[in-house]
Amino acid sequence: MRGSREDLKAFPEDAKGELGHSLHLVQCGERPRNEKSLHGDLSGVSELRADSEDGNTYRCVYTVRLELFVYVLHCFEKKAKSGIATPKRQLDVIRRR
After folding, report:
1. Rounded to two decimals, what is the model's pTM?
2. Which residue ranges form the domains of the chain, and what is each CATH number?
3. Sheet holding 57-65, edge to edge
4. What is the DSSP string of the chain?
5. pLDDT for 28-65, tens place per residue?
């Protein structure tokens, strides 16, 4: 959706490759090893994670509708140095989309 594709294209090659492969697995009906379901009011939404050689973590959030389509809602770099929770600002973008 919107700028998600451009955001994903801007990621380092290793993170982009891992997230792209994981999205392909989702399209094929499989569950990638780096997938985690989001909870609360975001049920039905999942997050893919990829650690890059640059030391950063990149995420791609998506939902599946009608089993034929994967809607990528948001892609972002997790910048927080502590904790594993998705930052509130990022969750707000996901909710809007």
Report:
1. 0.77
2. 4-96 (3.30.2310)
3. 35-37, 45-51, 57-65, 69-78
4. -TTHHHHHHTS-HHHHHHHHHHHHHHHTT---TTEEE--GGGTTEEEEEEE-TTS-EEEEEEEEETTTEEEEEEEEEE--SS-SSPPHHHHHHHHH-
5. 889 999 999 888 778 888 999 999 999 999 999 998 76
